[in-house]
Specification:
Blueprint: H1 3-24, E1 29-30, H2 33-40, H3 42-49, H4 56-75, E2 87-98, E3 104-115, H5 126-129, E4 134-135, H6 153-166, E5 184-188, E6 191-200, E7 205-215, E8 221-232, H7 238-259, E9 264-270
Parallel strand pairs: 2-9
Antiparallel strand pairs: 1-4, 2-3, 3-8, 5-6, 5-8, 6-7
Helix pairs in contact: 2-3, 4-7
Length: 273
Amino acid sequence: MNPLNNIAHRKEEKVLIDNSTKQKKKGPILTSTSHLMSYLTVKNIQADLQIQETKWPKYSEKELTDNSYDWLNDHYPAPTADEKVRKIAVRIKIDSILDSMQNERIILRLVVRNSNIDNIPVFEELGYIFDYAKWASTKRHQYRMTCGSQGDFLKRSLCMGYASWTAMDNTEYSFEDNQWPEPVILRFNGQEYKVFVRIDMSIPKITPVIKGPTKCDATAFTEVETALPIESTANQNWKNNVNRVLNELEDYYENYMIAKTGTEFSFIRTDSL
């Protein structure tokens, strides 16, 4: 055989092997330990998102409102659909719960609702959305996102809650014993689901716990509710810090609403404990 032909033949084989390898790599990628850890501590989440913990409430509001706005643009696009059809409502509420040491912790409850007058099916693959064992580049299983920067926000939000909740843990208490007790709550298509997360830091492993569905009145809207710890009453300045968070969220809403057209917006703030 001509040596040049032999070289060309080997190159052709290499191309075929490379293409075959690339094809096998398509689809969800198994999550590595290092990637899982980027979900589980304040330091790692801050590094991954490039957002400080104090700004997580604002980041959460941005992601949820962006997701709702994107979804309306997909299914009820303006100007075909007007403000009577395209609606987004934001509700923020301050609440308090006890941690494992019976200390009172202040949490933010953030609820974003968008209209869905035709009751179009959404969140059809919850198991995939909250699958922490896989990392997929596609957002096709997520609630439609374009403005939103994180396609995995719903499952990330649970771990943000966990990271803040356990950030001040005493080392004598295991992470397994001190779990983030608040769920992501999804109300859509006449049903409600609550999704909790259970963390085992010794492996590490993140396990979603999906409870539902139960019946609810969400037949003309879709609603997502998340929660975040934002302060401890042991801090003498906790009221000032809480007011700062609420003011930032309200300011962001005001600026966000101005930039969006063809949509009716509303905002409700409840800050009394």
